[in-house]
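Q: My labmate handed me this sequence with no annotations at all. I'd like to see what the chain might look like in three dimensions before we decide whether it's worth expressing. Could you predict it?
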Amino acid sequence: MVYQSRLSRIVPRVPAVLLACAGAAWSFGAHAAPKTVCTVTINSSDEKESFQRHLPPGDYQFVELVQRGKPDWLASARRRGVSCDVLVISGHFDDGTEFYTDRHDDREFLTVHEMQHESCSASGNGLFSKLKEVYLFGCNTLKSEPRHVAEGEIRRSLQRSGHSQADAERVAAQLSARYGQSNRDRLRHVFKDVPVLYGFSSKAPLGRTAGPLMERYFQTAPAGEVGSGRPSPTLLKLFGPSSMIAVAGLSDADPHAAFRSDMCGFADDRPSDAQKVAFMHEVLQRDVTEVRMFLDHLERYTAALGPQRRAVPEVAAALASIERDRSARDRYLEFARDADESTVQARMMSLARQLGWLTPAQEQAEFLRMVSDRMARGSLGKTEVDLVCTTYQEREPGLARQVMATGAVRAGNVAHSAVLACLGSPQAHEETVRALTSSRDEDVATVQVYLRHRSLADIGELRAVASGIGRMTAPAAQVRALETLAKQRLADVQSLQEIARLFPLARSLEVQRAIAGILIRSDTKMLARADLARSLRQHRLKSPDGSDVIDMLIRVLQST
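A: Here is what I predict for the chain of 560 residues:
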């Protein structure tokens, strides 16, 4: 061994066996393949650039997985044979469903579902199969709070089936822990058996802050630490104040490992549709409390089954088997009617229709019954207003009359009026719009939700609202009403003048800013701009935050 004899001449006193080991290690390092660092740059590139600047090119090679303009870039990387040792993902992750960007000129994103699909569908040489470390640069990536909590209806369902209250509470808590699917759990499932996942339990630093922190890390980090599969105390200490933590990916020994197998039953693209529908039927036959926690997966797969795929004989037969299962249907519908959240109840009824358990007319009847029941219980609010307006884009006065016939509608309840207005009642629309100038902030907030879906009817209505806002005395409700009016894009000169006259009278900076927000969105050519600018300068309340929308409006008026 030539290199060993050379080492012997340089260090003659080192034992030969140690020289042999050193030589073997030197030989292995010289010929080891470089580690592949895969980057997914959704938002900031600061983190990726720091890795690229400091990792030796001979030891690490970089592959950017994002291909701008190509929607299937993750699957494309797998088809190209890319296999990652290290994965660096940079993007916002606030709601836990996807990594996304805040740049208006870019629409790239990466959903958790896509990652689940990649993780479940890949064979031993997949994109994630060799991972040693994952860096998740985004807020809440390793947040531990459950995303789905359904303990109320689960507990009631268990008690109906004979469990004691204490036992029902215990089982409900266990199910929420198993199926609640916190961000941390979902990403641990995606990156199964990966030794180290770095992420953030709450807010994460933006790229312009994370980049310099990574620079400081690389200045002191031991050589070869990246991709070693061991948590770095140095990195965790630097990012610790920003809530960085490190966890391991899910292992087969994890108490909740079986859930990943179920999740992959829907996400894996290798089984046929008939096999997946059969698996879906098996899930639907379980205790309905488990079915509830699988709702996201059941909805997503059922929605993906288009008419052509449903028409395949084996798939049609499997779907027919579900449709005939009256026992599973009855348990499911009983549970759905008891759901705490109206949105969950509506989703479950929609899924029941897609499974053949409800006709469209029956689904509509269930929806109206839900609305009436919540009215009667006093639990109908902004969420239901948004749900009804979204569900019924077209006017359905007949449905409004059906709800009124139940006797559940309460006079003077703005949420009740807004729901009826969403369904197409002209009288309820008038009552709802009048509430925009109410002194109760809660009522104004409800009207704000309604007017996201339905516009003010005419100029007369617009002028009445503008005049009414001027008479409001509650600052918080007045600001909300002004913000709502701003979204109507005022083009009526009388209404604009009414709003402009309110500015000198306002005793709240927030009210003045809301007025400026309306005027800056509108066509101010119809107003006396010089007089308006003078009024703004003379009467504006001092801003503790420096320049604001009032200053912007003054500049706009002066520039024209």
